[in-house]
Amino acid sequence: MSETIKQFLYLNRKAPYGTIYAWESLEVVLIGAAFDQDVSLAFVDDGVYQLTKGQDTAGIGMKNFSPTYAALGDYEVKKIFVERESLEERGLSLDDLQHLVWEDEDDDYAEKDSIKLVSREEMTAIMDDADVVFSF
Amino acid sequence: MSTLHTVNKSPFEKSSLDACLAHAGTGANVLLLEDGVYAATTGTAVEQRMKQALDSVKLFVLGPDLMARGLAEDRVIQGITVVDYAGFVDLAAENDKVQAWL
Amino acid sequence: MKFAIQINEGPYQHQASDSAYFFTKAALEKGHEIFRVFFYHDGVNNASRLTTPPQDDRNVVDRWAALAEQHDLDMVVCVAAAQRRGMVDEGEMQRNGKDATNIHPRFRISGLGQLVEAAIQSDRLVVFGD
Question: Helical H runs in C42-112?
Fold first, then answer.
């Protein structure tokens, strides 16, 4: 394995369940976590629907994969950027999303928020900083 | 960091082009391919938006995708550069990364 | 320069695999290196050796296989995506008790780590999808 550390950005622009992209994208994030890269997740446009709380797939016969987002902290994935404009356009706010946290071992394992609400302008800068952008 | 953004959706069906242009930094390169090429011609409802975009980003369109769809190069908005696949490769190499707006 | 190519859509349904093919071919002609071509989502269907398009159409699978043969390309099909969609090689057939294989011998089935590794090792990742 390589010594190189790259800034990985996983770009999520699609809603869950209607297509498989969101779920299979999350599978890459989980596998990719083992490679010790500098990982960020971006949720823009319909991608913000992936993080809503209260998802119940019992009636559509599909696996509810939304609890997996809550496990991202255990995989050391702690930078989850959600675009404010994308939320607002969809009538959503941070309260509609799952509360995702990671444990900071340098701070007595205090739980810290993984989701950071950013403006479109800030999201542009985050994209600009990435070395590699994964799109699904 | 310089970025080549790629858009492969018609602007009349999907919002990918708008999303791309809203996030492409000044000086970024944007390549329209596949159904994305429909945004590159004159006389459309998005022509003004494309002309405005040219103030801050460089726009490219994939020639083989234009031809396949019956769009002659003389219909391409002035300022948008037509490239072939070799040109696409050059753009990908010249920029620091490629970001696909799928 | 080293490129990694990711293909998210199957053949014929979507242009993604065609675009990726012409990009890859052009990159090779310019002397660039293709570190890996990674097939994900429905893109795994590009590896079926049982594909039979009409004679007057391109054969997407054979075309990839011929390019791979000529340039010794590493073409990897994601195992998780392949299992869901019934893309099977000899190993997968035995592991999962299936009665047939359908993967073209120029492709190999492997894990998602191959995509991540390709992104790390290559100078550019270029994604083709829907």
Answer: 60-71, 79-84, 90-95
Beta strand residue intervals within chain A, DSSP E: 7-12, 38-43, 80-83, 101-104, 110-113, 115-118, 132-135
Task: Note which residues in 57-96 of chain A have CB less than 8 A from chain C.
Answer: none
**Structural domain containing residue B50:** 3-101
Count of domains for chain A:
1
Three-state DSSP at B39 gives helix
Look up the ipTM and state it: 0.97
pLDDT of residue A4 exceeding 90: no
| In the block, residue with structure tokens 């946290």 | A101
B97 class by beta-carbon count within 10 Å (0-12 exposed, 13-18 middle, 19+ buried): buried
Predicted confidence (pLDDT) per residue in C39-86, tens digit: 999 999 999 999 999 999 999 999 999 999 999 999 999 999 999 999
Over its length of 102 residues, how does chain B's per-residue pLDDT go in tens digits? 899 999 999 999 999 999 999 999 999 999 999 999 999 999 999 999 999 999 999 999 999 999 999 999 999 999 999 999 999 999 999 999 999 999
Give dist(CA B45, CA C55) in Å, integer.
39
Whole-structure pTM value? 0.97
Q: Is the pLDDT of residue A2 over 60?
A: no
Range of the domain at A93: 7-135
A1, part of any domain: no
CATH number at residue B10: 3.40.1260.10
Active site (catalytic) residues of C:
78
Q: Does B1 touch chain C (CB under 8 A)?
A: no
Contact flag A132-B22 (C-beta cutoff 8 Å): no
- Contact across the interface for A28 and C119, Cβ inside 8 Å: no
Q: What is the pLDDT of residues C87-109, one digit of tens each?
A: 999 999 999 999 999 999 999 99
Which two three-digit tokens encode residue C99?
Answer: 């009665």
**CATH code, domain with A68:** 3.40.1260.10
Cβ(C129)–Cβ(C20) under 8 Å?
no
Is residue A30 domain-resident?
A: yes
d(CA C82, CA B90): 32
Distance from CA of B61 to the nearest CA of C (A): 13
C88 min Cα distance to partner chain B (Å)? 28
Question: Quick one: DSSP state of residue C18?
Answer: H
